[in-house]
Amino acid sequence: MAAIPPVCDFGWPAVDATLRGTDGRTHSIFDQAGPNGLVVAFICNHCPYVKAVIGRIVRDAEDLKAEGIGFVAINANDANAYPEDSFANMKLFAAAYGFGFPYLHDEDQAVARAYDAVCTPDFFGFNRDLTLQYRGRLDASRKEAGASDLRRDLLEAMKQVARTGNGPKDQIASMGCSIKWKDTA
Length: 185
Hints:
Elements: E1 2-3, E2 18-21, E3 26-28, E4 37-42, H1 48-65, E5 69-75, H2 87-96, E6 103-105, H3 110-115, E7 119-120, E8 122-126, E9 132-134, H4 153-164, E10 176-178
Parallel strand pairs: 4-5, 5-6
Antiparallel strand pairs: 1-10, 2-3, 2-6, 4-8, 7-10, 8-9
Helix pairs in contact: 1-4
């Protein structure tokens, strides 16, 4: 069943954490910010919504660099229940798609909880002050990649954030598979 995150909570401050990356190093989320902002994306390896757009995510992350926007992806799914989302498989996924950004493992799910992440993909776009300005979709693709000429919602919103410090007032929520939370019982 698809999950849909809430609307953007404009001005909410980003949360920093240091997590292990698929490149073998640890990374601070804040260290990934560019001079004009940061996108924190919650993704995973197995979700059909992510698989449908992963090439576009990689493309848009690269294009955002030119706008002074940094990008980081985080996988918080329970890898015991979903082995395809294991750290070893994260390394393979990042290599297969040529990630030019850190792909971090939120093994204890603390970061996903701090961000109130709901689904994969779930995008959080922050301005240069690291306050939330965008929480919307990548584009209109769902479980199948849409047409190649779809409006690039995340890219266009973050370009606006880079120019003005503010995100668009009208945003369309992302949709994807729910975060696979660990059983705490």
